[in-house]
Structure formats: C-alpha cells, structure tokens
C-alpha cells in the first residue's frame, strides 16, 4: 500500500450489516473454540487473533477479555498520580505519524533546562505524584550528561518519586552520543547502568510503534527496528528494572501486523519469566509458554510477577498499552485514525493474546476518558494517571495542559463498575495519609 492510497484493509471494520451473528444476537460459532481455550488457559495463536479481529461478535470478544482481566485483578482498576514531562521536542527524526517533533529553528521548538526540570519535580512532589514519566525527541546536540544530570536533579528535588524515562529509541540515541560500551548490546547495558545509577527507575513503553519492517520503512524510517527495541528492553530487564510496551495502531499497518507485534512481545516475556514461573510452579506448555491468565491453578494475584517475587531476578514487561493513532497535524493526517469499535477490539485482543503481561492500560489521554471507560469493561485494568502536561498528542483544539483530577479518574472507574486503586509505577498499592497526602507503597 502506498501512503497516498485511501485506506482500506488496515483497520476498516468488517462488513457486518445483516451478519447472522448480529441478527440473531447469538455467539459467533467461530469463537466457540477460542472461548474454550480462554476458559481453560490455553494460549491463543495468531490465527485465533485473526478470528477475533474478523468476528462481528464484538460483545463476545470483550466478554472473554473481561473474564481474563477479572481473573487477574478482580474488580480493581489501577491509576496513579503522575506527571508526564517532555523535556524537548527537537528531534533528529521526522516520523510521518508524529506531530510532536520539531527541527531546531522551527516554530514551537523547545528544550527545557535543568532549572525548568527541577521546578517540575518540585511541583510533582507537592502535588503528591509518585511518578514522573519523561520522554523527548532525539535531540541532536544535548550531551549525555544532560540526561544523567536531569535524573539526579529530580532525585534531589523529589527523592520519593519514581522516574520512568526514555523510550528504547532514546536509549539507543544516548548509547550513540555517550559512546559507552560500543554500539552493540554491551553498549545498551553500559548506558542503562549509568542511567540507573543516576536514578532511572523503569522504562516506558514508547517507540515500539508496530514491529514490522514494511510499516517501519513507510512511516518511521530512521527509528530503531523491532530487534533493537526488544534488545533494549531485554537489557533493562536483565539489569533488574521493569518496562512497558506500546503498540501504535490504526495508521498504515494491517491487523495481522498488530498480531505479529503481540507475538514478539509475548515470546520475549516467556523467556524473561521462565525462571520465575519455574519457582512459582507455573506449568508451561511444550513451547515454554508462561500463561498467567488461565483459571485458578495459574493465579491468584500474589502469583503475578512483582519486583522481588520468588524466582524473579530480573525486571519484566508489566503493561501493554495499545495507542490509537492520532492523525492531527501529522504527515499521515489524511488517514482517519481508528474508530471506537476498533479501539475496543484491539485492546480486548491485546488482553487475550498477551497472556503473560500482567496489565493492560487504556491510556485515557489518547483513548479519551469515555473510551477508556468502555475499555475497562473489555480487558483494561489500568488507565494511567493525572498526567498534567502532555505534548505528544493533543485532542482537537487542546494545548498541552491535559490534566485530570484523581476525583474524575476515580469517578470514571467507579462508573464503569470497578474499584479505583492507586498504584505506584511497579503496581504496588499506594497507602496515603488522608490528612497530609504523605504516601508509601505497600510492602516497600
Ligand atoms: O512512542 C506518537 C506514540 C508514544 C502519535 O509506558 C503517537 O506507561 C498516537 O509511549 N498518535 C509515547 N500515538 C507515549 C507512550 C506511553 C504513553 C502512556 C503510557 C506509557 C507507559 C507510554 O506515543 C510514542 C509513539 O509511539 N505517538 N505520535 C500519534 N500521532
């Protein structure tokens, strides 16, 4: 498909008008075998994923995803008090899907200095935030010391705050500019060690886009490819820190490419959790699959991977975050972006396919809060947090002040039928003094 072509296959809804499964409101028989697998905790194949994408019976897809999320998390939905910080939008790359990047002299280009960052950290601490989520463009001339100084400065201003920072793409960029440990895997480990020593607590899931070379070359050429993205996260896990994974969908990719993306993540997580699963006595299938979403034998909650849990010497992927493509102001603006049903379906399928990821996040900033509420009933157990400033995508007519209150988040969660649970970055429950707002993580 060329970029100029009108979109058709990528995320077009199947023709459902008059489909028997909808007319009679009966379950699509194509889902019977998939439902059996989900009920018994058997891993779904990519072919099963294709059936879930093609079926007109979206209700059954959501019911299955909801069943799995309730097995894992009961009626809890997690949120956090956080602040996103974009330190600079100046970027050496010009990805077609991205409306955030600017060149040095372009209108709207910015870079925050360390005083700005210190001030943000103080505001975060004063507002009771437990996390700062920091990402930016691939800045062509800021030195490596800028990044380690930024982490240390935040640690000085807000020592309790967890710093989740830098997508895998930024880590590879930092590896190049720091010239630490060469340009292979050892170099990734070296740069991550330096960042962890300066205060890095975990990696966010950004920059994954869709793990497919065709899509990569058409829409984000110049970015690292899937093998490098996965290697950065493997290195982070090896060094004992957790990370998340995103999937940017609803642009020029095919649904089969989304499924391939999920399969690669699932495979890497199998390797990461293998020793932990052995220590927990979690049975694996013949291919070494670690399925966390099955019935009683493989859960309850306390047997989800948590930092420090038995047999777990590494970090791991905590959360999958499907990100719906926002066309506004990007080079792919002529595309319509995914529909509501496509958002619901993609998130539910992510919950079903990624059976070894403990969490699925409906990121309210990109999904919108009303859509995120529906997704809580279709597999999501997390909604992100209070955010405050967000510059990467903006709702039509909005600036980068995109804040919601804990009250609004909790109300949205309760209205969807769940209990709102404040968490820290690694999903420990947060205990707060109602008077002072002072907080600590359960078990920390
Ligand atoms: O890496 C960029 C995506 C990501 C657009 O780890 C776009 O908890 C949609 O990774 N339309 C950054 N998406 C956001 C991100 C994230 C968000 C929330 C939580 C976490 C987490 C991670 O946003 C980028 C890119 O994949 N993005 N442009 C766009 N036009």
- What bound compounds does this protein have? ligand V47
CATH class, named Alpha Beta
Q: The CATH topology, please?
A: TIM Barrel
Task: Please state the average pLDDT score.
Answer: 92
What order do the strands of the largest sheet run in, or round the barrel if closed? 2-3-4-5
Q: How can the largest sheet be summarized?
A: 4 strands, parallel
3D structure, described in words:
There is one protein chain. The chain has 444 residues and is an alpha/beta fold. The protein has a single domain (20-441), classed as Aldolase class I (TIM Barrel, Alpha-Beta Barrel). It is 39% helix and 13% strand. The protein has helices at 20-23, 32-40, 46-54, 58-73, 114-126, 144-157, 168-178, 185-198, 213-219, 226-238, 255-280, 340-353, 364-367, 369-376, 406-415, and strands at residues 76-80, 82-86, 131-135, 162-165, 200-202, 243-249, 317-324, 359-360, 382-385, 387-389, 401-403, 419-422, 430-432, 439-441. A four-stranded parallel β-sheet has the order 2-3-4-5. A three-stranded parallel β-sheet has the order 9-1-12, with helices on one face. Strands 6-7-8 form a three-stranded parallel β-sheet. Helix 11 (255-280) links the parallel strand 6 and strand 7 (317-324). The chain is globular. The model is unreliable at 1-12 (pLDDT under 50). It binds ligand V47. Ligand V47 is lined by residues 97-99, 167, 204-207, 209, 244, 246, 248, 321, 323, 325-326, 330, 363, 366, 384, 392-393. Ligand V47 binds at residues 97-99, 167, 204-207, 209, 244, 246, 248, 321, 323, 325-326, 330, 363, 366, 384, 392-393.
